Amino acid sequence: MSQSILLCTTDDFPGGSTVTDCHGLVFSSCSAHAIGQRVSEIKDRALEKLRTEAGKLGANAVIGVRLDVSVATRPADGFSMENVLTLVTAYGTAVSVTSTD
Known about the structure:
The protein is of the alpha+beta class and 101 residues long. It has one helix spanning 37-56, and strands at residues 6-7, 17-32, 61-73, 84-99. The radius of gyration is 16 Å and the shape is elongated.
């Protein structure tokens, strides 16, 4: 279900879709002890959760999608994966869109 929810970084959809209803702000975050390639996996999980939250509100799209990536380390303990925590936060506005084509 959530895969059918469209994500767009702009405030409208190109190509003939119109926003017909606004359902409100949706937010998700995921974290893991990760760097490098695993950060992409965390991002994907955060976006999937964003889609799920939008679907709960009855939306079929999220506009104005933004991602924030934060990395926290404990340098006093030395560098290792256990000392690096990556947090990916995703947010946007849940809306209903219809095609005008």
